[in-house]
């Protein structure tokens, strides 16, 4: 115990005494008061140190129900989005709070739930924060996004392959540095974002010239399965002029992760890349987290002033993971089985990419979107088209003809393009599309020989130009074409309109 200081001397009343004695008494009173203050100060300091050393209370709850993916726990008050441990005899399982109803918390496991028993102890992964001690400043984490889970970020991630929880999947050992960033970031003030002004060289001729992408633009790559999305993304990963490439492989086949890294990225590409892989066999929570983590890493590099290329394969699997979670905790499905929260999550993720403040770095992002059977009504494709700054549509018909990359020029658009290229080039692109479309519409007629030359001057011109246009659009998987060369070859298609 600490003795309380003597406070009797504090208010000694001043009495009328002779002059000389009065001066001496005043000195004595001041000295005693100073001593008194000092003792109080010492006591307060001691108490402050004791409070700072105290252990935070460890609270725990119990597991009451497990159905499918969702678990319920009682006896705990934890924020949605926070992490907890479920204790088992030999191990423990990490879970996240995804919702609550009354006193019951809904939890979702990060991995497998094998071996859970009724009544298992549930403890928060982060202990309660100690109160701020006097003299100490408030923790900088003030907003709800700051309280979100923190995962490793930094230069040391370059060349590494990680899972959705920031654990290395490659053979290069543990991550040693300790810098971390929250999985949910604060939204950027839209007025502070730099505009998309500078064209980005993606190394693919058809995109560079006909669908010019700007630094900080967010594009969708729409296609059915097996049409060449991954190969095209790989080409862009290898040839785009970016400082850092962040690849999020979300919900795709596990086999493809290795293929993407060894065959598509290669040693050279991997050196400037960070790969976050959460394939289809991981929990839906891990898949959501993987996409958020890849975005967090991209944001980190952008905030260092770097130009980042973010590749996410696929946005549809991300939406499906959110659907799994939302349906499991009882959210009603709205559009084609997708609950409303899915449509809220998509823009939240996509809006994190893009340009930072003026003069800072950028995140140019490509998200793949699965459209089965050219289903334009697919709610995810619909929603993605509305929130992205353009879409590149891949066509199965072209792929079947061996026309790679199978970009459907007529159906694709880059919404920032008119700010990036000259008005003359923009007009030529419209002309190219017009002629290409005109030829396609009359293709059957031409191929059966039913078209009589001279009856449609535009079609005559299109027939003459078509082989050149087709040759221009095709590009080998391991062939790159820089921006200036793409633009040069494009204007060579229209020699008379210099
Ligand atoms: N540029 C190209 N040149 C030659 N062949 C290609 C090209 N692009 C794609 N292909 C062929 O198409 C196949 C499928 O491509 P890819 O794996 O990229 O499709 P995907 O759309 O990602 O499919 P999934 O939806 O199943 O992930 C490849 O294995 C390859 O044979
Ligand atoms: Mg693929």
UniProtKB/TrEMBL annotation:
Keywords: ATP synthesis, ATP-binding, Bacterial flagellum biogenesis, Bacterial flagellum protein export, Cell projection, Cilium, Cytoplasm, Flagellum, Hydrogen ion transport, Ion transport, Nucleotide-binding, Protein transport, Translocase, Transport
AAA+ ATPase domain boundaries: 215-398
An example Gene Ontology molecular-function term: protein-exporting ATPase activity
Enzyme class: translocase
EC number assigned by the record: 7.1.2.2
One annotated GO biological process: bacterial-type flagellum-dependent cell motility
One GO CC annotation: cytoplasm
Any one Pfam family match given in the protein's UniProt record, by short name: T3SS_ATPase_C
PROSITE patterns in the record: ATPASE_ALPHA_BETA
Compartments where found: Cytoplasm
Cross-referenced SMART domains: AAA (SM00382)
Listed name of the protein: Flagellum-specific ATP synthase
């Amino acid at each position: 115990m600490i003795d309380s200081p003597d406070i009797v001397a504090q208010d000694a009343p001043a009495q009328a005494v002779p002059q000389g004695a009065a001066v001496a008494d005043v000195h004595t009173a001041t000295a005693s008061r100073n001593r008194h203050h000092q003792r109080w100060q010492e006591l307060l300091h001691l108490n402050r140190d004791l409070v700072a050393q105290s252990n935070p209370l460890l609270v725990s709850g119990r597991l009451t129900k497990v159905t499918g993916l969702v678990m319920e726990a009682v006896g705990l008050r934890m924020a949605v989005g926070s992490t907890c441990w479920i204790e088992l005899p030999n191990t423990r399982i990490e879970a996240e709070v995804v919702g609550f109803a009354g006193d019951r918390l809904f939890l979702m496991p990060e991995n497998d739930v094998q071996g859970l028993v009724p009544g298992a102890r549930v403890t928060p992964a982060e202990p309660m924060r100690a109160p701020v001690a006097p003299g100490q400043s408030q923790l900088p984490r003030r907003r709800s996004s700051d309280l979100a889970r923190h995962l490793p970020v930094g230069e040391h991630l370059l060349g590494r392959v990680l899972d959705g929880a920031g654990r290395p999947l490659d053979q290069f050992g543990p991550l040693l540095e300790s810098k971390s960033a929250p999985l949910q970031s604060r939204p950027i003030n839209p007025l502070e974002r730099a505009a998309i002004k500078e064209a980005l060289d993606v190394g693919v001729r058809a995109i560079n010239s006909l669908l010019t992408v700007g630094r900080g633009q967010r594009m969708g790559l729409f296609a059915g399965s097996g049409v060449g999305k991954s190969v095209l993304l790989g080409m862009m990963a290898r040839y785009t002029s970016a400082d850092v490439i962040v690849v999020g492989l979300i919900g795709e086949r596990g086999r493809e992760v290795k293929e993407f890294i060894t065959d598509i990225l290669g040693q050279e590409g991997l050196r400037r890349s960070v790969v976050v892989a959460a394939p289809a066999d991981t929990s839906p929570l891990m898949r959501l987290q993987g996409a958020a983590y890849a975005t967090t890493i991209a944001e980190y590099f952008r905030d260092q002033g770097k130009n980042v290329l973010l590749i996410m394969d696929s946005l549809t699997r991300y939406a499906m993971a959110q659907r799994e979670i939302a349906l499991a905790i009882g959210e009603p499905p709205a559009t084609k089985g997708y609950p409303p929260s899915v449509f809220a999550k998509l823009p939240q993720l996509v809006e994190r990419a893009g340009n930072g403040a003026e003069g800072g770095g950028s995140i140019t992002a490509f998200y793949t979107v699965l459209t089965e059977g050219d289903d334009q009504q697919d709610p995810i494709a619909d929603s993605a088209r509305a929130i992205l700054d353009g879409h590149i549509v891949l066509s199965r018909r072209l792929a079947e003809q061996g026309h790679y990359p199978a970009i459907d020029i007529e159906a694709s658009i880059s919404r920032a393009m008119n700010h990036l290229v000259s008005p003359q080039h923009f007009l030529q692109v419209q002309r190219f599309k017009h002629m290409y479309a005109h030829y396609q519409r009359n293709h059957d007629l031409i191929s059966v020989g039913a078209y009589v030359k001279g009856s449609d001057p535009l079609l005559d011109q299109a027939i003459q130009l078509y082989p050149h246009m087709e040759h221009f659009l095709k590009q080998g998987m391991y062939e790159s074409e820089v921006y200036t060369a793409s633009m040069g070859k494009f204007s060579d298609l229209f020699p008379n309109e210099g």
